[in-house]
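About this split. The held-out portion is used to measure sequence recovery: a designer receives only the structure tokens and must propose an amino acid at every position. Recovery is the fraction of positions where the proposal matches the reference. Here is one held-out target exactly as it appears in the evaluation file.
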């Protein structure tokens, strides 16, 4: 079953605080995803953004990927599910289980 483990939280430099997740299995060769919620503004709906990243939270392509969607609810578990069927785990031992 696809799994995701939170690696870092509150990362700056994005439209909102970002969270880095290690995922198994990888997407397009990347085993980390960076998620952040872009809040609503100027009458537009907010957006959960999913970016492919490396273990240092470095992103080479800032175009949103699978799982990104419009919402005012920053729901990370739901977004991870949409990105690749990932479920959150609490430890590395649970990865890929």
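Reference sequence for scoring:
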């Amino acid at each position: 079953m696809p799994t995701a483990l939170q690696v870092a939280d509150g990362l700056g430099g994005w439209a909102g605080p970002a969270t880095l997740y290690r995922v198994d299995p990888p997407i397009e060769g990347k085993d980390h995803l960076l998620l952040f919620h872009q809040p609503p503004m100027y009458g537009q709906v907010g957006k959960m953004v999913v970016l492919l990243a490396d273990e240092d939270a470095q992103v080479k392509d800032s175009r949103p990927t699978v799982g990104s969607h419009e919402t005012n609810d920053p729901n990370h578990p739901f977004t991870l599910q949409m990105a690749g069927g990932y479920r959150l785990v609490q430890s590395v031992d649970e990865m890929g289980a």
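Annotator remark: The radius of gyration is 13 Å.
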